[in-house]
Design brief:
This protein has 323 residues and is an alpha/beta fold. The chain has a single domain, classed as Spore Coat Polysaccharide Biosynthesis Protein SpsA, Chain A (Alpha-Beta Complex), CATH 3.90.550.10. The protein is 34% helix and 15% strand.
Length: 323
């Protein structure tokens, strides 16, 4: 493993041309959630084709170095953008894609990797990720949850504001909706989307809500400005034929894992006892499944990974069939 303290380069397996990109903030919950991604990366030997590149808050980089050790893991210091007195105050979501707006970081990633998955810590890879056939013309996205599900009027209102913002910025809009947080595709394409997404997020935070109003959820809400910005950026840079929606950021619910599901996101959902609820996990209220438990859902799969160590999961993986 390499800690790139001076942004010298990403020093790991020279044969790996793909990477999973993530940001780890200075929060105990973020470190624990990163372990879920880390364990699923190793239990299926995905590390043999994909590096894990973690941009890490400098305050915890030594903690991460001690806890997670692997030659295909690189840690790059990156300060949080959510600093008091700046435009990003109280908006930590920007950290998940700000590494691409840094010329040094962006160059490192683009020079080293052909394909990347830009994602969050609270995610889980499935065995299907290892065998994905990548296409230079396609970008995969999760399904975003920023559109309200309380009626067509709210949905239309949010969509109209997204389209109006796109038009005001002189950007193209091609009716690609519900774009999730994670992105998988050619490195130069993902980095271009993220750079534009940050620019649009900045504009939305300044002008999308006036006089101290932040809107409310469900509806047009300041808390999901970066998600609106992601949709606007994707519509400007891609055509529908170049997007694949729904096989990453899969919901951690009672749904079964299918042959097309690559990656699961621990969404904030609480409508079932057998799905993976990360709030309950952090409170120590999720039961630990036995490694001989028959996995019936994505939620149970996530729960298994979160509550077991890597050695147990390696044994578990050798016996597990998803579908």
């Amino acid at each position: 493993m390499a800690i790139i303290r001076n942004n010298i380069g990403i020093q790991n397996n020279p044969q790996n041309k793909n990477a999973i990109i993530v940001y780890i903030d200075n929060k105990e919950k973020c470190v624990e959630e990163f372990s879920w991604l880390w364990k699923s990366w190793l239990m299926w030997n995905i590390n043999k084709e994909w590096d894990l590149v973690a941009f890490t808050n400098p305050a915890i980089i030594e903690t991460i170095e001690k806890r997670f050790k692997h030659n295909n893991l690189s840690l790059l210091p990156m300060d949080s953008h959510a600093i008091k007195g700046t435009e990003w105050e109280n908006y930590g979501f920007v950290n998940s894609f700000s590494m691409f707006d840094n010329p040094v970081h962006n160059k490192l990633i683009n020079e080293k990797y052909d394909y990347i998955l830009k994602t969050d810590c609270d995610t889980f890879l499935t065995k299907n990720f290892k065998t994905i056939k990548l296409d230079t013309t396609k970008v995969h996205f999760g399904t975003g949850l920023y559109y309200p599900d309380q009626g067509i009027d709210l949905i239309n209102m949010v969509r109209e504001k997204i389209i109006a913002t796109s038009k005001a910025m002189g950007l193209k809009y091609r009716n690609i909706t519900h774009v999730g947080a994670s992105m998988l595709g050619p490195t130069n394409t993902i980095s271009s989307i993220c750079i534009l997404q940050k620019k649009i997020t900045s504009i939305l935070l300044k002008y999308g809500w006036q006089n101290g109003d932040v809107g409310k959820w469900p509806g047009w809400w300041k808390g999901t400005a970066s998600m609106y910005a992601g949709e606007i950026a994707v519509n400007h840079l891609l055509k529908p034929m170049n997007t694949v929606l729904g096989n990453i950021d899969v919901y951690c619910t009672i749904n079964k894992i299918t042959s097309t599901d690559l990656h699961i996101h621990a969404w904030q959902v609480e409508d079932s006892e057998i799905l993976f609820n990360k709030r309950l996990f952090h409170k120590g209220k999720l039961p630990k499944l036995k490694t001989n438990h028959r996995i019936e859902s994505a939620g149970e799969y996530c729960s298994m990974i979160a509550t077991h160590d890597l050695a147990e999961l390696k044994i578990f993986a050798s016996k597990l069939n998803f579908y």
